[in-house]
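Figure 3 (text version): structure tokens given as input.
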């Protein structure tokens, strides 16, 4: 991982952690106290989601690197501050995937299936992490673990929405049944966690 890419993913991860634990201007001390929980749960989940896309894309022999979207990051911070943490917009950046060219300049084609599988990797990681955090929270009765379960279910659900550049659009275009299965898993986890 190059230094610029590492910088982008660290800034995005720390900013997201703050956004998810921010409780409002009058609760800034509490928000800062919760930051380690956010770093453990939100940052880890976000980084694993993005690295999942990156690793799978590279397995398919595509060029893939995380790039921060400064405008998205600023918008997310402004919305969190303006709504006292009530509205979360999580689009700090993404893994950019580009086909490689061979020695003769021929560009490797990216199939709809490959793009769909690569896009499904991130939400699938969040679903697995949500389930793992949830099971661990059940056995250890931990608010931090339950927060990790909730965050991961939310990240999976958000990223599976079939809107614009989100993962859900690419998965749905590739395979409607896989998209539906992933979305059903994310919705079910999110609903169960909210009830408990």
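Below: residues designed for each position.
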């Amino acid at each position: 991982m190059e230094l610029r890419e590492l910088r982008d993913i660290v800034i995005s991860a720390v900013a997201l952690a703050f956004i998810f634990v921010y409780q409002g201007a009058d609760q800034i001390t509490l928000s800062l106290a919760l930051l380690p929980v956010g770093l453990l749960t939100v940052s880890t989940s976000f980084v694993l989601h993005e690295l999942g896309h990156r690793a799978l894309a590279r397995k398919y022999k595509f060029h893939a690197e995380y790039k921060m979207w400064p405008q998205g990051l600023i918008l997310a911070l402004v919305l969190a501050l303006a709504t006292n943490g009530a509205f979360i917009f999580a689009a700090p950046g993404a893994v950019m995937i580009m086909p490689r060219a061979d020695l003769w300049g021929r560009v490797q084609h990216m199939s709809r299936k490959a793009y769909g599988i690569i896009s499904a990797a991130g939400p699938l990681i969040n679903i697995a992490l949500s389930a793992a955090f949830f099971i661990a929270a059940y056995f250890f009765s931990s608010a931090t673990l339950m927060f990790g379960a909730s965050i991961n279910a939310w990240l999976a659900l958000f990223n599976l929405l079939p809107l614009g550049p989100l993962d859900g659009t690419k998965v749905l275009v590739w395979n409607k049944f896989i998209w539906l299965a992933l979305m059903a898993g994310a919705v079910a986890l999110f609903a169960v966690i909210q009830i408990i």
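The chain has one domain: 3-195.
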